[in-house]
Design brief:
Elements lengths: L3 E4 L2 E4 L4 E7 L8 E7 L6 E6 L6 E3 L7 E6 L4 E6 L8 E8 L13 E2 L3 E6 L1
Parallel strand pairs: 2-11
Antiparallel strand pairs: 1-3, 3-8, 4-5, 4-9, 5-6, 7-8, 9-10, 9-11
Length: about 120
């Protein structure tokens, strides 16, 4: 069983930055694909960014491309989401997700493991 624990959320003004971290337990992290989803109140959970097992394939939603960067350090069992130039519409709870197959996560159905989430609030 893999456990994912997010950290780094908080309150920031528009234009500011935050870095989210997701620490994974288990010895097979390096073979998993990882992703960051977010869910705002009353909205569906959406994929923000994803990275395959090696880091060689990366996906960004159009709404965050050019502002967010996903990365991973397999030696630390950790995946990051650097968020720059944050906007009020980025306000949501952000979830880390892991996929056993190692293939790039594209939908929530590709994820086998989920963290509890961390809140990001961007004030205008």
């Amino acid at each position: 069983q893999v456990q994912l624990v997010e950290s780094g959320g908080g309150l920031v003004q528009a234009g500011g930055s935050l870095r989210l971290s997701c620490a994974a337990s288990g010895r097979t992290f390096s073979s998993y694909s990882m992703g960051w989803f977010r869910q705002a109140p009353g909205k569906e959970r959406e994929l923000v960014a994803a990275i395959n097992w090696s880091g060689g394939r990366i996906y960004y939603a159009d709404s965050v491309a050019g502002r967010f960067t996903i990365s991973r350090v397999n030696a630390k069992n950790t995946v990051y989401l650097q968020m720059n130039n944050l906007k009020p519409e980025d306000t949501a709870k952000y979830y880390c997700a892991g996929g056993r197959s190692g293939v790039l996560i594209r939908t929530r159905f590709d994820a086998d493991y989920w963290g509890q989430g961390t809140q990001v609030t961007v004030s205008s």
